[in-house]
Amino acid sequence: MAAELTKLRSLHGEPAVCLIGSEPVPFAVTERHLLVPHGERGPVAVRFDGSYVWSFAAARDGSWRPRGWKVPWPDALRRRLQGTTMVALASADQVRFEAPVTFGGNSDPLRLVDRRGHRLAVDSAGHLTRVFSETDQVMRDQIVEATRTALADLRAAGFDAHLSYGCLLGAVRNGAMIGHDSDADLAYLSKYTLPSQVISESYAMERALRQRGWMMVRMSNADLKLLYPLPDGRKVHIDVFGAFEVGKTFYQLGSRSGVLPRSALTPASTVTLEGVELAAPADPEAVLAFLYGPGWRTPDPAFQSDDPPGGQRRIQGWMRGFRDDVISWNEFFRDRHGDVPWKQSEFASWVESRLGPDEPIADIGCGTGRDAAWFTRRGRQVLAYDVSGAALRQTRRRMARNGAEGTQARTLALHDRRSALVAGAELARTAQPVNLYARQLINCLDDEALDHLFLLASMAVRRGGSLFLEFSTGRRGSLAPHQLMSRVDPAKVVAGIEARGGVIDDLQVGPSSGFLGEADPRVARIVAHWPHPRTQRVTHMTEATR
After folding, report:
1. If exposure means fewest CB atoms within 10 Å of the residue's CB, which of 120, 204, 357, 485 is most exposed?
2. pTM for this predicted structure
3. Could you tell me if 437 and 364 are in contact, meaning their C-beta atoms sit under 8 angstroms apart?
4. Nearest 5°: phi and psi at 92?
5. How many CB atoms lie within 10 A of CB 417?
6. Does an H or E element contain 33, and which?
């Protein structure tokens, strides 16, 4: 019987549901969630106006309700749900729901596109990006060529690299990219079996690739993300995952671990992807079964791995796992940087009043460069640091508009001890002692990254200068952008500074503004310094004499 698809909406704004004949099918779409029947166990694909948007597994991603599985919209998508679009839900290649749905009371067409007008979708990591199903063949060819170049450079530098994850899966299945995928995936088999040696090898790889002109972001101690610019303005990401053996266990970044013989990986074979022959593992099918399980031949756009917890803990401990927040911050500064106020913050003016003339500043976590640019207009020498490449690009553009092209904006990944040490050493050797400035950075850091900040400070301001911090505190109230920031207890910060040898000069808590300029009733400000080693020695000698 032909399906009659109808949108139902009550005067009270009840969700759209789908009718097949006269019997209601319990699929529903609201601004906050989707409702899926209990019997739906496989992946469900979501389309807006015929274009792929997202896939989910209802039992895994939703919560049980008497009428069905309640599945929330992913965070990256929810904030873009404004307008009217034809929503279709499909499972097992059959459309199970199709109806026009209005989000936010907005009757204008919902446009889920980037600033260049390209359609966006949610990838497997939960990020809103362009997927291959919305990429034309010319651009696909460019992406494959970038992948071929990366493989050639890695192998020329002596690394046993091959296609992996989605690229390998698509090549073996049907010789094409997977439509819901969004980046290229490579892996390399390490020569070493000690995690410390694997880490050292990964940094050697980074140096070799940078010498060949690659731009990249380090995601962990054995995971790089190469950035390749395409003619349409986007940058394709090429992940390079480390793979290695420790004892009888094989590990691959992306948190995979288990039993896989080296003979399945090397020597390399070849597969064809979009008509191009590329290096592949020795036994691609064995590797795919390891990565995706025995059902790897069956397409599953909502696939999520079920990795052994013990292996995940070891990879996290050895390599610091996957730094997903880097991508999230890049997305924020690319898509939502307009949410950040343009003028300098109140904290910048407060710090300026405490500094002497011509004292230089290092803005740690510079974001859009709003405060760094203001300090340069005040005649100060400024060094700017951030983990986000998108933030650094905005900071450089803003500095250039201020006529401060010489101002340096550099990458600093505080989750990486090596990066913190390098920045600390550089700042310790500036012509004048430097002041460290960090507004709302504390709210973005985990415990290890926070300690690395204080390690950096202990190196940078021993000759003079101070550390100036502002951060949101208290136990209540969320922080925007959500999922990326959390409130921090000042006592924790004070203890961390003192553990690294710092001295607290001032601590204030009161009303101020948050990261996006919103009023915040509890904001902490801390000023600290580190005594010069000679001063410390004199103090110790005096105490001993007494």
Report:
1. 357
2. 0.72
3. yes
4. 50, 40
5. 17
6. strand 33-36
